[in-house]
Amino acid sequence: MPISDLKPELNLEHRLIPFETSPLPKGPWLVFAPHADDETYGMAGSLLKATEEGIQTHLVVVTDGALGGSKEGLVDVRHREVQAAARILGIESVDTWQEPDRGLALSDELVNRIAHKIGEVKAACVFFPGPLELHPDHRNTALLVWAAVQKLSSEGLAVNAYSYEIGVQNPVNIFIDITAQRPRKEQAMTIYASQNDENNYEELVLSLDKGRTFTLPAGVSHAEGFYLYSKEELATSLKEVTHNIIELYF
Length: 250
Prior knowledge:
- By secondary structure, the protein is of the alpha/beta class.
- It has nine helices and seven strands; from the N terminus they run βαβαβαβαββαααβαα.
- It has helices spanning about 40-50, 75-90, 110-120, 135-155, 180-190, 195, 200-210, 230-235, 240-245, and strands at about 30-35, 55-65, 95-100, 125-130, 160-165, 175, 225-230.
- Strands 3-2-1-4-5-7-6 form a seven-stranded mixed beta sheet, with helices on both faces.
- It is globular and about 60 Å long.
- The model has no long low-confidence stretch (mean pLDDT about 95).
């Protein structure tokens, strides 16, 4: 292809990533975590901030986390850890659904269960892992929640859908400043000893939060990234939306 046929200008940075932080979305919130710890690693700072601002938050842990290490009685250990973390974060209710770790798949039963839970807590905003997460349970949780949100939309109930980052950078169009909440996020992460013994997750998470300040004002030491999906995006597939976001880079 001749150079002259190439697109003359790429999108500028502000089309790809925010240059300022945003206020918290309205509540109640309902967070879907594939495993006990994902809610804390991914968005503890925002959950703490929500509690400070009087926003009601709820959590569903989708799998039993049985494959997340070799500790004896791991499922029970992780259940106790998430309850302790939820108390620090101010989460009002925690459901542990005990689906098999690394066994998540799309099913009408799970989609209906998710949709019912969204309606039960009257969630204004739902949160699920970003589509570029590496663990298959993370991506399957995203697909399940996406399908539930679409089901509710077809029934006339609209909710705001956000994806959040856990282990890697994902598409984001919102940053929440967690500078003031960072010390308590660190405290909450220490609760997950069963997982922190497996890897240096605390350090990795804080590095991700620090790296997300690259385009933000100097006073923001740490930030959590989210993607708020538009009504038009929610009418299509998560795969298509993700491809369209990546296409913006070219």
